[in-house]
Design brief:
- The protein is mainly β.
- It folds into 2 domains: about 110 residues, Immunoglobulin-like; about 110 residues, Immunoglobulin-like (Sandwich), CATH 2.60.40.10.
- Helix content is about 5%, strand content about 55%.
- The chain contains 2 helices and 21 strands.
- The strands form 6 sheets. Strands 2, 6, 8, 9 and 10 form a 5-stranded antiparallel beta sheet that branches. Strands 11-13-17-15 form a 4-stranded antiparallel beta sheet, with no helix packed on it. Strands 16-14-19-20 form a 4-stranded antiparallel beta sheet, with no helix packed on it.
- The longest helix has 5 residues.
- It is elongated, with a radius of gyration of 24 Å.
């Protein structure tokens, strides 16, 4: 996923309480931001810090934000890959005497993800599935390199993960920055939390193989005999 989660810790290092009037994240032009500092309460969201947003001396609060690429950039793997600037924090507060203060940070940086030549992610996967019952997933394969690739996919069965279908499938040529979605079917032979593993992509042009294990996780549940009664 291209989502970026930002956690900001704010501490009151003065000797008196502060009223936190606003703590917001202004995203960079390529991102939309969602604040994760409230919980659903009726028709409105209630702050996780309560109705009175006071920060006592030496207390610390953690603010969480989720940034998602805008639709026009989400499909451009090469563009998002190189983006390090995610936005800046805007903090406004009042002292117990009513004096207002404001702090705006410089542009915050993130470490650019290293996708390598090919990025494989899951677009669709169920959270919970039945034991030994096939389920469908959808893989998204993106060419993050600057050259065209001719890809072949192999599906290797692991100890508890078993793939359905033909291994060694020809996926064809994938140009730089292009993506393709690929539906696959798999099942697990063991209960509990299982990791989806065993996918191999080979670029026939360079004879180079890319291995993908622990791509995602799902929970396998055994249906009891009572459920069929």
């Amino acid at each position: 996923t291209d989502e970026v989660f930002l956690e900001a810790q704010i501490q009151n290092i003065t000797t008196s309480p502060m009223f936190m009037e606003k703590v917001s994240l202004e995203p960079s032009m390529m991102y939309n931001v969602t604040e994760l500092n409230s919980v659903a309460s009726g028709n409105e969201g209630e702050s996780t810090f309560g109705k009175m947003s006071y920060l006592q001396p030496m207390d610390t609060r953690q603010y969480l934000y989720c940034l998602k690429p805008k639709p026009e950039y989400a499909e451009k793997a090469g563009v998002i890959k190189g983006v390090t600037v995610i936005g800046k924090l805007d903090i406004v507060w009042k002292t117990n005497l009513g004096e207002r203060g404001r702090l705006q940070t410089s542009q915050l940086q993130r470490m650019a993800p290293g996708y390598g030549d090919i990025r494989l992610s899951l677009e669709v996967i169920p959270d919970t599935v039945n034991l030994e019952e096939p389920f469908d997933i959808v893989c998204k394969i993106t060419n993050c390199s600057e050259r065209t690739m001719d890809l072949v996919m192999e599906m290797c069965n692991m100890r508890s993960i078993h793939w359905c279908g033909i291994s060694g499938r020809q996926l064809g040529k994938l140009s730089p920055g292009a993506s393709l979605s690929l539906p696959l079917t798999v099942f697990s032979s063991e209960q509990g939390l299982q990791s989806i593993s065993g996918l191999r992509l080979t670029d026939t042009f360079l004879k180079r193989t890319y291995e993908y294990d622990d791509i995602a996780q799902t929970i396998e549940i055994a249906l009891s005999e009572a459920s069929f009664a």
